[in-house]
Amino acid sequence: MCHTCDNPPCVNPDHLFLGTSADNSQDMARKGRGMQGEKARTAVLTKEDVLAIKGMLDAGVVHRSIASKYGVERSTITAISRGKNWKHV
């Protein structure tokens, strides 16, 4: 079940709608309620880091060099460049 009121303990039938776990996750993301960016407990980068990384990408700096500078995997930089990670920045 998914909640229109975003209160998990709520059982008011008027506040519930059928949906899969994926539907619920998409609803959460659409409403900006997920743990994204610096809010994620596993985050290594800050918003400022990502803005700087995007600038470096625009300037043609290679992913490996950026990853080394920020202490992350090259795949993290690739995901940022493709808009898969940190797309809200």
Count the E strands: 2
Provide the gyration radius in Å.
17 Å
Please, how many helices? 4
In N-to-C order, the SSE pattern is EEHHHH
Q: What is the helix fraction of residues, given as a range?
A: 40-55%
Q: Which percent range describes the beta-strand content?
A: under 5%
End-to-end Cα distance: 30 Å
Based on helices, strands and strand pairing, what is the structural class? Answer: mainly alpha
Strand order of the largest sheet: 1-2
The tally of domains stands at 2
What composes the largest sheet? 2 strands, antiparallel
Shape: elongated
Mean pLDDT: 87
Which segments are poorly predicted (pLDDT under 50) over 5 or more consecutive residues?
none
Give structural notes.
The mean pLDDT is 87. The radius of gyration is 17 Å and the shape is elongated. The chain has a two-stranded antiparallel ribbon. The chain folds into 2 domains: 2-34, no CATH class; 38-81, no CATH class. It is built from 4 helices and 2 strands. Helix 3 packs across helix 4 (74-81). The chain has 89 residues and is mainly α. It has helices at 21-30, 47-58, 63-70, 74-81, and strands at residues 2-3, 16-17.
